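Saturday, quiet lab. Running sequence design on the structure tokens for the scaffold JK sent over.
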């Protein structure tokens, strides 16, 4: 199982072991990680699972599609070039060690 590291806004890390095929959002919600709401359950309709991918990982992840880019315009914290919706990040073995930072707020 690949490892996922979620960094809280205060710098506190939370390490999770995530099943291949599970989204970063689902892993965070199931493990009750504060800061990921996932209101829509991963249907790409709420933007409450916004994260900032660590820059070292950005080029190694699947590209955003147009729907994800549109939803990032609705996040409560200003998106950056490293912003992603964690419901769209589906864990693979190659993503072992993925680091994402959580925003201070979600809608």
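Result came back. Writing it out in full:
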């Amino acid at each position: 199982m690949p490892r996922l590291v979620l960094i809280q806004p205060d710098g506190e890390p939370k390490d999770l072991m995530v099943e291949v095929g599970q989204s970063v959002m689902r892993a965070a919600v199931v493990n009750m990680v504060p800061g990921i709401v996932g209101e829509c359950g991963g249907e790409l309709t709420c933007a409450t699972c916004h994260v900032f991918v660590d820059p070292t990982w950005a080029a190694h992840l699947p590209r955003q599609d147009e729907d994800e880019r549109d939803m990032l315009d609705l996040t409560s914290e200003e998106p950056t070039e490293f912003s992603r919706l964690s419901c769209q990040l589906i864990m693979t073995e190659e993503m072992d060690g993925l680091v994402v930072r959580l925003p201070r707020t979600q809608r």
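Notes for JK: Helices lie at 24-30, 55-58, 66-72. Residues 3 and 17 are 5 Å apart (CA to CA). Ask whether to fix the surface positions before the next round.
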